[in-house]
Amino acid sequence: MSLQRLTALRALMAGHPTALAAYIIPTADAHNSEYISPADARREWISGFTGSAGTAVVTANKALVWTDGRYYTQFEKEADLAMWTLMKQSLPETPTMEKWLTSNLIAGSVVGVDPHTMTREEWTPLQTALSKAKMQLVAVESNLVDKARISLDDPPPKRPQNDIIHLPLEYTGKTAGEKIHDLRVGMLEKKASALVITALDEVAYTLNLRGSDIRYNPVFFSYLLLTPDTVTLFWSGGRIPDDIERNLSDEGVKIVGRPYDDVIGGLSNLARELSNMGDGEHSVWISNEASEAVHRAVSGEGVLKNPLNLISEVSPVALAKLVKNDVELEGFRKCHIRDGTAVCRFFRWLHQEVDSGNKITEVEAAERLLEFRKDEKDFMGPSFETISGAGENGAVIHYTPSSDSPRIITADDVYLLDSGGQYKDGTTDITRTRHMSEPTDLQKETFTRVLKGQIAIGAALYPVGVKGNVLDSLARKYLWDVGLDYAHGTGHGVGHFLNVHEGPSGISWRPYPHDPGLKMGQILSNEPGYYRVGEFGIRIEDLVETISVTNDTTHPRAKDLLGDYNGRGVLGFNTITLVPNQRKFIKTELLDDFELKYINSYHKRVLDTLGPILKNRGLMEDYAWLEKECSPLM
Amino acid sequence: MSLQRLTALRALMAGHPTALAAYIIPTADAHNSEYISPADARREWISGFTGSAGTAVVTANKALVWTDGRYYTQFEKEADLAMWTLMKQSLPETPTMEKWLTSNLIAGSVVGVDPHTMTREEWTPLQTALSKAKMQLVAVESNLVDKARISLDDPPPKRPQNDIIHLPLEYTGKTAGEKIHDLRVGMLEKKASALVITALDEVAYTLNLRGSDIRYNPVFFSYLLLTPDTVTLFWSGGRIPDDIERNLSDEGVKIVGRPYDDVIGGLSNLARELSNMGDGEHSVWISNEASEAVHRAVSGEGVLKNPLNLISEVSPVALAKLVKNDVELEGFRKCHIRDGTAVCRFFRWLHQEVDSGNKITEVEAAERLLEFRKDEKDFMGPSFETISGAGENGAVIHYTPSSDSPRIITADDVYLLDSGGQYKDGTTDITRTRHMSEPTDLQKETFTRVLKGQIAIGAALYPVGVKGNVLDSLARKYLWDVGLDYAHGTGHGVGHFLNVHEGPSGISWRPYPHDPGLKMGQILSNEPGYYRVGEFGIRIEDLVETISVTNDTTHPRAKDLLGDYNGRGVLGFNTITLVPNQRKFIKTELLDDFELKYINSYHKRVLDTLGPILKNRGLMEDYAWLEKECSPLM
């Protein structure tokens, strides 16, 4: 099947007006979304590889996918390795796609890509590199994978246009009117005549609206265009429903709806209008993560004699929503109490089932977990596809259990559960790893080293404004000390009832290029791990909020502070995830006093917070389980 | 005086054919040297600020210097603050020079700079940013500061052209012929018709020659041009002396000497010749750290119709000399034994003098240290200006003691000594901080936290190929834990009987942009610190070599290894500096068992290595002191 698809694509490449020596298929949709709609799953269709990140390149006789360490194992399971080559992009010896193209194609080659699926930030350096090597990067307006699908009678699914909902002020803490006011103040400072918002979560955040066009991500296909006096939403639904219009009006926003597919034409018109005003030069502010296609349209490139000036940089909406307001933070803390309750109930249930010899598959476990979450107030659905991996499957970093090859969770298994919920007041993302009976010594040792790294981040203090990457090795140290490591970052940002992966900050050995430096009020994950391919996987993940720390703060290091980094200010984390780690997985002799106290104090907080809720609901078996799990380690 | 100089410069700026709204004065000479000859000390002359790093910008009514945290205190002491503004470039709130220029000058402004004093890597983004803001960056061929000096009858000193020496194979481990052969293999792979080497230490390394044109740096003013069959040295001495020619010939190199000032003409001619050969396109390989002026000359920009293609990237010589060969490494280890002997003898002497109530100044201490080093074989001079700082002066990170304001080292002082030697077999750089009587509790606490960070680096294990920046926070952690930090990086590369600061690797919170990833055989410093302005400064600095670690290696973590990072390989450090840290400065209750064992084992190694040497020389008082200093901590 993969060969047939490749052959169809190659025929289109050869038939392109400028015959294409290579065609690039990024994962991204037109909004640079990390998770995409089936309508945009082009790389998946052509390669068979379903991971959330990766870029395919097809030439006349090669087909390759660049992806990162989370997906090496998965790629080798999913792709047809007779046709497809894995390029391990985390490894220093792997050539970049750019390097590969310039070394493997001959001078004069033309490389094609759909300009909607590549950001300008990616486009420009690639174009420069290819041009240096006497090659050409061309924008192929109609997507060739979509065309290949049609040619094989397997057209891409229709783009969704589901209903949108308004999220009231009690959840968002800030009206859409205030948010747009702040953006317009920024436009004045930048002397920008318009601001184009292209990322789906940024549109949703700005308007205090949510949708369901992409699974797990409460967003809707749209672009938002702000001028000093207009707000235009290019939306798959077209006209704005009356109730939404009323809600926005109550929040001080008068909005105009236009069809989603009008966006390129609409932006081109804007460029022409601004250019024709004859009152001097106009600039448009746009995210550097907007697509090459949008950049071209809104600057009037190739249409206007003097294209408009673009201020293309990290989106101001990305920088605004990165720092959560007090209402959002309080929502995050509250939904983590409810989410923790559900996850604890699930684990109590799972242990009971496995102990009783019942045959629970990974998929059934994930389904049951969903039921527990559904019991909780304001639950809107999972925040990503549940990773429910027993034994060797736990070593697949982004594993998805399948009903086609059911795997029963046995008493001999290490079981890794990475899951999360969307709640109206926040988003959760938690991983716990539990042994279903007795962990081996190696499992205990590696679990404890992962935990030590997780505590090192959870208890870290650091100066205001440092970038998240400087924290990464604190989490790896205890694994590095014995020659072990994990092939993924340590933490990512999390949106507020929005995408579970949110930029531009994060904690990784690889610096996040647009991290503005850590500030109070951010939400990040803290998730070191260890994976033994074919045997077991361990990951421990909490969400944490960045807090300011002085001698009076509730923080394990607050009392010891001797300074505030010469006035820069001290940041630390407050862990908001509330589920105990398995006591018998922890090798206490590897912990120092600080770490032991830290765990016991965390477990006490979990019990003190969740215990009364379980009791109030009469869930006495769950309470008894939690009490045992939270009892102090010595 | 500063006003008169600024006025002279401003007159020249105004009189420039395109009147200059701003003139930039980088620290660098034409070779992007970090330490420069007085002939090139233009920023120092105009601003009064003598630090080793910083860039001055002069406009009609402003004068600013951007410099980093090492120099904040020094700048405020040296520059006339009525005229000069300090821009603290390590702080996130400080605008970059580029940002400052584009926000403070009006559209249409022309900014000038001497293209010899700016690398193309700096030039291009600055030019782009200015051009976006409708400003222009112009190359001012004659340096305006030099002209201002002449106009004030204070001409710049003559460029030195001291003798050069040949460093025999027993020190270098690799002939110049082999080094050039390797570079030519690289040229073939890159399809480069020529390679231009512009950094002074790279020329010295390639030819196994050393000079003394820049104080503390055994280099000589020169450029090296390689083609497949010629080796041309543009050297301030012009014709190559017969003995050097013979030495090089013995190492398989036939070299042609040409005058230093011919380089721009020579490179332009090369460009013309290659372009006229009519056998297709030619490329020239050049370091991205070569000056804008050299880039222009060798590409034939503005002269040839089709300028040559430049392969401008990290210099292959920089990448080659980064990894020391076995002879160089053995030399490093050996000279550190001799250097350690000298430093121990110095501290024994200093304590005796201070204890006896003798009034020793910081300058006298530095002079006496030099005498002890002169007793050691193959000592060629200090590797940088000795930082000999008592009390409050220790808090000035790159302090230079002065005879004009002598400071006596008293029994109440913390005394910081950062010094190093050039030896024919290697370069040393060591800092020790000692209290002259009894440290306070805060001093002990901060010293011990610095030491814990230093041990964390010294004992770290990490995967082959990670960049040095990922290690930085391991050193800061124990200070960060209590709200303290230091405003400099944790480690820099060190040349082999070459520059004491050597790129492109290093350990800092700010990633080294061209760090190729750590490999076995590098030499780095490990030097966390803590500074309390007006009170005292603490720094502990060792040099370490990167070593491969398996279960059989002599390394404190070797036995515990459970893996090799999935085949990537394990790196660690071997500390080669051999001088004890002051026992009474260490608060043992802050150390864990591993750290205590680590220090005791290091001190035992110091005593076992240096003790017999002192005894053999009959230096029994020194031996007794060392034995006491190295006795185990409990």
Uncertain spans of chain A: none
Strand order of the largest sheet of chain A: 4-3-2-1-5-6
What is the rounded distance between the termini of chain A? Answer: 58 Å
Specify Rg of chain A, calculated over alpha carbons. Answer: 25 Å
Largest sheet of chain A: 6 strands, mixed
Overall number of strands of chain A: 28
- The oligomeric state is homodimer
Largest inter-chain contact set: A-B, 39 and 39 residues
What level of helicity do the residues of chain A show?
25-40%
**Form type of chain A:** globular
Task: Kindly estimate the percentage of residues of chain A that lie in beta strands according to DSSP.
Answer: 15-25%
Mean pLDDT score of chain A:
96
Summed up, the helix count of chain A is 19
- The SS-based structural class of chain A is alpha+beta
Task: Write a structural description.
Two copies of one chain form a homodimer. Chain A has 634 residues and is α+β, with helices and mostly antiparallel strands. Chain A is 35% helix and 19% strand. Chain A contains 19 helices and 28 strands. In chain A, α14 (326-355) crosses α15 (362-374). The longest helix of chain A is centred in the middle third of the chain and has 30 residues, at 326-355. The first copy, chain A, starts with a helix and ends in a 5-residue tail after the last helix. The mean pLDDT of chain A is 96. Chain A binds chain B through residues 92, 442, 445-446, 456, 460-463, 465-466, 469-474, 477, 480-485, 487, 509, 511, 517, 557, 560-566, 568, 570, 592, and chain B through 92, 442, 445-446, 456, 460-463, 465-466, 469-474, 477, 480-485, 487, 509, 511, 517, 557, 560-566, 568, 570, 592.
